[in-house]
């Protein structure tokens, strides 16, 4: 059954107070709940409390047996008055909870995940984000097994009970929706630290992990403190409790969760040291720790009215964590990474059967809408508002938003209105970004009039149809634009912010003496697909001279893309200009290594496919490998120099990370140009590595080759890290991502490996998601890749539908592929839909992909 945004109604009953009492035990946890409920407005409807898999043992209203019934997934209670105290009791079994939603067991711990609708698996409750309550929580458990008892807010009392048990009382002074409830019990040790807020509040910080993992928590703690400071400085937001707890758990459906005062994390986004984590892992940890911390304001203090507004907190918070990471390292490189992710994950979503707007209109299962569109395109919307308003007005807008809505559950519209009210800028047309799905396309070309020293930029936009949405209106596209003199390489005038608001427009530039190079959509100021009519040599020149690093990166990438597409079409591709641009980048003294690493990374096979009418994975693969080997051969000396630089793994400065990044990019190109030399260099890099970044970079290259070096490296890696599950995930992931003809066989065999399990989401994704993202291997012409992924989806769906459903889109994109593959993919989707007992999560994704 679909739920529609337009059907929103305020809650019939409010729940100002909640008291919960847990007798914790993995096999049978007894839950007592006492809700204070108040009729909201004038109506005579009963109280409806959601429950999922719960059997009511006791239901009382005002201390007496209540008039209640169970209807569908709800407990329905008839209440005569306008206020009541409702008591319920249920038993739940955390150890049997394989969905990892609600209260579940992970490696001896008991922990919770409630967003979006997990709380109803713990106790009967309205469980919608616009019902905010103050929580009191009593936890009791066996003291030896569960020495640490944590919940939201502050610890107010604790003590020992009978039979070796103990208890703790927690109180959260901030009213919150049920999706922010959290609780953890287990044998944990803390990395303890402190933070003094800008107004002088002393906050106790704890990162809770198993004792043996304590040495790996330093980076997460530093990141947390940096994020707390940054939010004070950049947004004026201060932390509001005396205590901030983070817990790392091994079994977790997503990255992490912003529960008030008690963030719960997938351990992969907490634990790191240079021997076990790559530089990218370190950066991801900083980004996710900051993201969850930032939610304290953008999510917890100001929350969502309903789940259609999810981007209100996620888009904004992603934008905030992106800005934070940009400020901590290189802004330009961070922007390149974010755009790479947007293009890899969100553009295909917007172009496929599951396309939806940033604020969706309907859903069957809300968990399916935690998407790149809601998160990452949502973040682009906030970024565009900042670009249009300017940083000062944007800050005024965010201040007004927080001040106006503190303690409320609000909508995306409320956010935009705060921005308008604070800035005086009319954002009516901008709102289309929230409602219209699909990536806008922009055509651009420049006409130069040398005699008048003017240039005219012609622009036209179109918004493609998406499922259920046709005939769209033009949107506001903020395009940062500069014209650069083709001869001198010098900008002709200032960069301008061109706002394209009509279907088409022409913009006049004065003082353009030389023939201009068009540098447009700098910093990716609008998330659009650009189609620029260019003169011969224009991209080459831009790749050489554009002073804006992001634009220069784009020119390099576009140059490569043109060669790759030509190759994939079977045209003889000329690689000389690509090689020249890459040589220029490599030897430049002005560019830093991190930027070079990005600029020299060829567009992925997936990205090339997105630019083709119909994707032909084999043609793309051979075109890309041909270009890689041409580059590797032609630039062997320059690449060799970049690859031979060594820097201590203990050095985690942005500079050091950049050097390592470039080192592995260089290795990979060298190996493409000369496999024998590549294998030797990779083996040497692997053997000499004092850090996971170099080690993994070497393995990535070896994984795609034949020979004893590959076997030896993978065997050694396995022996060394077999007891470290996060590193073992990498061992699975690297093999699943290998560009090798035998990858399908390898992956099928790995699914039978004793260390593979469908019960741990990280392990499952290490194998299955990485394989499905490996275009050439997954789209094996035999259809074996599709069959494997489908089998895996169906297997995990029986125990954990959310993990299963997130993988369906990889098969759902069948219309984009050449007919043989399209047919095979479609058949697998049909097999999914025909499976008895399918979850509604997977059903929604698969059936929409077939429609
Ligand atoms: N709010 C969490 C975050 O982005 C993610 C929760 C994911 N929940 C879900 N049902 N998919 O930080
Ligand atoms: Zn989030």
Automatic annotation (TrEMBL):
GO molecular function, a single term: metallopeptidase activity
Catalytic activity: Release of an N-terminal amino acid, Xaa-|-Yaa- from a peptide, amide or arylamide. Xaa is preferably Ala, but may be most amino acids including Pro (slow action). When a terminal hydrophobic residue is followed by a prolyl residue, the two may be released as an intact Xaa-Pro dipeptide
Keywords from the named record: Aminopeptidase, Hydrolase, Metal-binding, Metalloprotease, Protease, Zinc
UniProt-listed Enzyme Commission number(s): 3.4.11.2
InterPro entries xref list: Aminopeptidase_N-like_N, Aminopeptidase_N-like_N_sf, PepN_Ig-like_sf, Peptidase_M1, Peptidase_M1_dom, Peptidase_M1_pepN, Peptidase_M1_pepN_C, Peptidase_M1_pepN_C_sf
Any Gene Ontology biological process: proteolysis
Residue stretches making up the Peptidase M1 alanyl aminopeptidase C-terminal domain: 539-851
Cofactor requirement: Zn(2+)
Any Pfam family the entry gives: DUF3458_C
Aminopeptidase N-like N-terminal domain sequence ranges: 75-180
First-tier enzyme category under EC: hydrolase
Ranges where the Peptidase M1 membrane alanine aminopeptidase domain occurs: 220-430
Segments forming domain Peptidase M1 alanyl aminopeptidase Ig-like fold: 438-531
Transmembrane portions of the chain: none
UniProt cross-references to CDD domains, sorted A to Z: M1_APN
NCBIfam families noted in UniProt: pepN_proteo
Family statement: Belongs to the peptidase M1 family.
Protein name: Aminopeptidase N
Species of the source: Sphingomonas cremea
